[in-house]
Amino acid sequence: MSGAWREIPFAEFATLQRGADLPVNERRSGTIPVLASNGPVGYHAIPFAMGPGVVTGRSGTIGKPTFIAGPYWPLNTVLWVSDFHGNDPRFVFYFFQHFDFVAYATGTSVPTLNRNFVHGVPVNVPPKLEQEKIAAVLWKVERAIEVEEKLAAAARELRRSAMRQLFTRGLRGEPQKETEIGSLPASWEVEPIRANAKLVAGGTPSRTVKEYWEGGTIPWVKTGEVDYCVITHTAEKITPAGRENSAAKLIPKGTVLIAMYGQGVTRGKVAILGIEATTNQACAGIIPTNGKVLPLYLYHFLSFSYDRLRSLSHGAQQQNLTGELVGSVQVAVPAKDEQAQIVEILEAIDRKISLHMRKWTRLQELFKTLLHQLMTGQIRVHHLDIDLSEIQ
Questions:
Q1: What is the mean pLDDT of residues 200-217?
Q2: Torsional class of 102: left (φ above 0), alpha (ψ -120 to 50), beta (otherwise)
Q3: Average pLDDT of the chain, as a whole number
Q4: 381 or 363: which carries more pLDDT confidence?
Q5: Measured between alpha carbons, how far is 26 from 31 in angstroms, rounded to an integer?
Q6: CATH code, residues 139-175+336-392
Q7: Bigger pLDDT: 145 vs 107
Q8: How do residues 76-132 score in pLDDT, each as one tens digit?
């Protein structure tokens, strides 16, 4: 390390202590955070330690650090810093994110971190002022990440509100009529998907035949990739032989995909193809046929209809959709020019969400890069004029 960085044992940088047991039935109503290996898990009336504090997972989730500004109670599934030895607590928190605690865990079924194995490890530490500046840089990047996350969440809520308005009231202030799918503008029609589109099932080439997969060039969509998006690439591709020797069919760009089954929230999700592709048998492709329903309108309407789609599924072990059920789904159909206007509004909101998520992703990548380079001295900030007053 260049400059005034020094190498010391971990224990002289931050001394770790095991937390204390506190069963749920012994916790008293209060405002003191109770910290476990994954972070806060409740509150108590009495503190075990005073902040600022840093804890890291000891058992269960190894090495995940938590920073706490005020008093807290560390459970016995964490190690807490009992002595910072004059080092900046916020810097210690970021240092813990970079340090490989997992390498010092023992046990297979339930890995456990032994502080004694960590305490003797040599670590390189900058002077206190440089620690504070490093922490300030990383803190500012984290705040920028939070801003983008909040802006994306606000845009998603705007999208939900816009869909409720657009798919029930329309854009023209028309009188309403009652239909089997709820109140709609008087001029809108209600028709099943099969009236204006055909459904195409997918398939999976045999995994035991390598010629069906190796060197594949045909995109092959799995249900996990059907997630309210335009699909422009896939994790796996199949060969022409794989397509010809399976139920997989090449379907066109603009096809709306729906996940027919899947664990958790997957079933009922939709996406739209931005490329020609094949799908597995757990996806249904919906291809508009007569021009009455715009593909992007259908995609957005089915996104809005997620809960209704899931309510149609059935099955004893796993509730599944079927092609017959999907074909029977009723769709609100306005005039094509109004469909286009609705699509334009929702696509604009989607672009905003996408913009914030791209920024969020890039800031996450920046944080990881800076964390590594700042903690190893590859980037030095000791000479920079950094405002330290903002850090909470």
A1: 96
A2: alpha
A3: 94
A4: 363
A5: 15
A6: 1.10.287
A7: 145
A8: 999 999 999 999 999 999 999 999 999 999 876 778 999 999 999 999 999 999 999
| Domain boundaries of the chain, sorted by first residue | 6-125, 139-175+336-392, 189-333
The 8-class DSSP code of residue 101 comes to G
| pTM score, whole prediction | 0.84
Tell me whether the CATH fold assigned to 6-125 matches the one assigned to 189-333.
Answer: yes
Peptide bond into 47 cis (omega under 30): no
Which has the closest alpha carbon to 333: 185, 159, 172? 185
d(CA 129, CA 88): 9
**Residue 216: per-residue pLDDT:** 96
Under 8 Å between Cβ of 326 and 294: no
Whole-number pLDDT of residue 312: 80
What letter would DSSP give residue 209?
-
Contacts of 192 (CB under 8 A, 6+ apart): 327, 328, 329, 330, 331
Query: Contact, 274 vs 133, CB < 8 A?
Result: no
Class of domain 6-125: alpha beta
Report domain 189-333's class: alpha beta
CA atoms within 13 A on the CB side of 56: 28
Rounded Cα gap, residues 120 and 77, in angstroms = 21
